[in-house]
Specification:
The chain has helices at 43-54, 83-88, 108-111, 134-143, 186-195, 215-218, 236-247; strands at 20-26, 32-38, 62-68, 73-76, 97-102, 122-123, 149-158, 165-172, 175-179, 223-224, 231-232, 250-252, 257-259. The chain has 264 residues and is α+β, with helices and mostly antiparallel strands. Strands 6, 7, 8, 9, 12 and 13 form a six-stranded antiparallel beta sheet that branches. The protein has a five-stranded mixed beta sheet with strand order 2-1-5-3-4. It is extended and about 75 Å long. The N and C termini lie far apart (82 Å). Residues 19-105 form the Ras-associating domain. It comes from Sus scrofa (Pig).
């Protein structure tokens, strides 16, 4: 047989999205069930699969939970999340589990969002001059790609310490921030007040004419809240140094802290 007549058969390559994975899901009584699922399966699909296999009634409350004992946390896996992607973030030595049980408040946030985020906890990073109410901001959060800031107090403690501290937190799209001064929430506000007049002008050339600022922008002043009484900072150099110092007092610090699940 000539070389040209030979046929070479290569093994078929299964696309990654079609590859099967085995996951173990626990019930409230700690019994478990192994499921073979595709790599692109969502939490909603896993719930539907378990509902069918167990002959449950689908009342839209069945939920998949991620149980993370090493940080004392359990969270709801949202319907759209890829389960295999969630599992890929688990460490080899961690005793994490998936739980399947009912959560009657699963969609309550979308029905009554103000129960979860009162008006004083919702704001925009940029000044809106009161043109958008907190209720409208929250609706924008639910219906678009705009992300407001959620802020408030949490009780937290660092790993290895027994005492809990009341700390002011700020949740942004980029992460969870907290004030190193504990109950101080004015450091970030001072930084924003100082930087606000300069926002939107960094991309302009030296020949462009800067638009006139509004009266509300011109009325912004740098304030120092570090002492017992607040004061206006009139020296621009001092204002800049304090703003930078206060701005740097905010850090993303979530990996080694434990939180109680309530806002103050």
């Amino acid at each position: 047989m000539s070389l040209s007549a030979r046929r070479v058969t290569l093994p078929a390559i299964t696309p990654i999205v079609l590859q099967k994975r085995v996951i173990k899901v626990y019930s409230e009584d700690e019994t478990s069930r192994a499921l073979e699922v595709p790599s692109d399966i969502t939490a909603r699909d896993v719930c539907q699969l378990l509902i069918l296999k167990n002959h449950y009634i689908d009342d839209h409350s069945w939920t998949l939970f991620e149980h993370l004992p090493h940080i004392g946390l359990e969270r709801t896996i949202e319907d759209h999340e890829l389960v295999i992607e969630v599992l890929s973030n688990w460490g080899m030595e961690e005793e994490n589990k998936l739980y399947f049980r009912k959560n009657y408040a699963k969609y309550e946030f979308f029905k009554n969002p103000m129960y979860f985020f009162p008006e004083h906890m919702v704001s925009f990073a940029t000044e809106t001059n009161g043109e958008i109410s907190p209720t409208q901001i929250l609706q924008m959060f639910l219906s678009s790609s705009t992300y407001p800031e959620i802020h408030g107090f949490l009780h937290a403690k660092e790993q290895g310490k027994k005492s809990w501290k009341k700390i002011y937190f700020l949740l942004r799209r980029s992460g969870l921030y907290f004030s190193t001064k504990g109950t101080s929430k004015y450091g970030m506000q001072l930084y924003q007040n100082y930087m606000h007049p300069y926002q939107g002008r960094s991309g302009c050339s030296s020949q462009s004419i800067s638009p006139m600022r509004s009266i509300s922008e011109n009325s912004l002043v740098a304030m120092d809240f570090s002492g017992q009484k607040s004061r206006v900072i009139e020296n621009p150099t001092e204002a800049l140094s304090v703003a930078v110092e206060e701005g740097l007092a905010w850090r993303v610090k979530i990996s080694f802290m434990f939180f109680k699940i309530f806002m103050m």
